[in-house]
Amino acid sequence: MADGWGADPSAELTPSEALWPWPDPPERITQQLELIAAEEAGEEEEGEEGEETELVDPDTGEVFAGKVPRPWNLAELENPLQRIVLGWLDDVVMWHNHSYAWQEEQIIPACWQYHQGLALDLAALAFGRIDAYETATAAYVGRWHSDWDDFQRRMITALGDGGRDCRRGEHKHPAKYTADAVRELITKRRAAAAS
Questions:
Q1: Cα separations (Å) of 138 from 34, 110, 126, 129, 175?
Q2: Model pTM greater than 0.85?
Q3: Taking the CA of residue 49 as centre, how many other CA atoms within 13 Å lie in the half-sphere pointing to its CB?
């Protein structure tokens, strides 16, 4: 057709160019997920046998004192695991921007790590996708796409007009002065209450 409506937009792309595969988590993240699964299985078995299984941190060789850190809780992680998770999430951002970001406001900016709320939300979304796609049925995949849609709305709202600068590689925190003022006031209030 002369008007172009009959053209196949993917005819110029190979499937590997058009459809990027989900970035598999590095082995260290997979180990952490296996430790969490072992911890949860151990809690179920503990009631039956009363024998506790010791789980060892692969990075330090020490037995976990409490719960095994969840990799989606970025603030709870220590290096090198935090660095590995953040690196993998960079891959997830590139995958997301290729696969889903068809409008400028849908692009996750490269400075996502400097937006704590965005980083925490992204981690939950990425690990939630692992769960959704590893189930025996596709029932949870649709739910993950709803979660993705919610993530997009929250990201667009959180970044606001400043998100345009961030998406263009010029990270700015336009509300920083206000956040600093609130933090200063609360710190003073706490100091006054303590005395």
A1: 22, 31, 17, 12, 41
A2: no
A3: 9
What interhelical angle do 116-134 and 139-159 show, nearest 10?
A: 170
Q: Compute the distance between CA of residue 98 and CA of residue 101 in angstroms, rounded to an integer.
A: 6
CA distances (Å), origin 19, targets 35, 78, 93, 104, 152: 32, 34, 15, 20, 20
Q: Are 165 and 105 in contact (CB under 8 A)?
A: no
Write out the two tokens for 58: 């692969």
Least confident of 21-25, 57-61, 115-119, 166-170: 166-170
Q: What is the DSSP string of 107-166?
A: PPPTTGGGSHHHHHHHHHHHHHHHHHHHSSSSHHHHHHHHHHHHHHHHHHHHHTTHHHHH
Place of tokens 């590139």: 94
Task: Look up tokens 């990201």; give the residue.
Answer: 155
Q: Which two tokens stand for residue 76?
A: 């709870």
